[in-house]
Amino acid sequence: MTVFPLVEELRRDLHAATFTRLTDAEVAALRARLLVGHHNNAIEGIDPSPEMVTLFEMFLQERAPLTVSEPYLDRYIALRLVG
Questions:
Q1: C-beta separation of 24 from 18 below 8 A
Q2: Which pLDDT belongs to residue 83?
Q3: Residue 39 to residue 33: CA distance in whole angstroms
Q4: Which end of the chain is more exposed for a tag (fewer CB within 10 A), N or C?
Q5: Are 1 and 53 a contacting pair, CB within 8 Å?
Q6: Contact assessment for residue 48 and residue 41, using Cβ atoms and an 8 Å cutoff
Q7: Is the dihedral of CA 14, 20, 24, 27 positive or negative?
Q8: How close are the terminal C-alpha atoms of the chain, in Å?
Q9: 3-state helix, strand, coil in the chain (%, to 5)
Q10: How far is CA 31 from the centre of its chain?
């Protein structure tokens, strides 16, 4: 498995954060929602990078609700856009 340093940095920060982790059912529902989003993007010809796929998988592994993961996603995008 490829390791992406920025994703691992975000994982460390997220893992240390205090929040209520998603239940198994909530993780399954979020995973299904993400798959629909990826499918819709694929229809539009938008393929996520391997790093982006790893980022979203990390959010699921850490059981982070969207309200918690969104600032980390924003940080990821800002760092990738700014470089």
A1: no
A2: 64
A3: 10
A4: C
A5: no
A6: yes
A7: negative
A8: 24
A9: 75, 0, 25
A10: 10
Tokens of 44: 């539009």
The encoded tokens of residue 59 equal 């959010």
SS3 (DSSP) at 67: helix
pTM of this prediction?
A: 0.90
Asked whether 11 and 62 are in contact (CB, 8 A), the reply is yes
Instruction: Note the helical H segments in 22-63.
Output: 24-43, 50-61
Distances (CA, A) of 77 to 29, 57, 72: 24, 16, 9
Reported as a single tens digit per residue, the pLDDT across 31-49 is: 999 999 989 999 999 998 9
Residue 69 burial by Cβ neighbours in a 10 Å radius (0-12, 13-18, 19+): buried
